[in-house]
Write the structure tokens for this entry.
Amino acid sequence: MTNILVPIGNSAEAHHTLQYAVDFATDFGANVFVIEVFNATSKTGTLANISKKIVESSKERLKEVIAQIDAKQTDIKIASYNGELVDGLHEIDKELGIDLIILAPRSHDIQEELFLGYTSGRIIKQTDIPTLVVPRGTTYVPFKNVLVAFKSGILKRKRTIDPLVTITDKHRATVNLLLVKTPGYADEDLMVNSCLMDISSQLTITENATTYQGVLEHFQSKQPDLLCVFRRKRGFFKKLWEKSTILKAEFSAPVPVLILSSKKD
């Protein structure tokens, strides 16, 4: 794991997520990049000047966020992008090779309706970059117990689980697999790829309407400190793909959630 990207939004608590990312990166010997994406357009021919001012203002704000944390020995690099968020992430990934995005959910407030807001929701749903969603205020500690939940054991590419393997190897974590048989499952979905079996100590098979309901049913008994799911259009976030936000009523987790790229679609 070499490069970690932290999108910085407008939250006053952004430094908490950045501190977690720095602590994580220090443990893995990775670089940290912070980015703020803006969209400056102009019909007056002054776009260059406007963009320059926005970039300067963005960098100053990011420096203020960085000043609030203990950067340890990490060299935090700043990046700005003028354009659409997803395009910016793809460009940075193409240039640098991003191994992991670390971001926070919308809010930890139980009264707050959203788990992921518009920006974070788009990052999850419109990129294939592995993403770690960290509850606000979480202090980085090594993961000891990982729950990997999925509705199909098919693994299209072995490298899909590379971030998971890197984390579990580093922390010598116990990995529990949870295969959730949902309505309409195919027999081939029950054949769990050997790459997943090789890193796990236990496989549990359950039947639920959705993968998320399976997680809810088994979360307490497994007591994971990291939940891992897969980003699939007809998978864990099935009914959520038509909108960018994700409601807490539809999904929420009290522990960090590692979201890996799609397995078979």
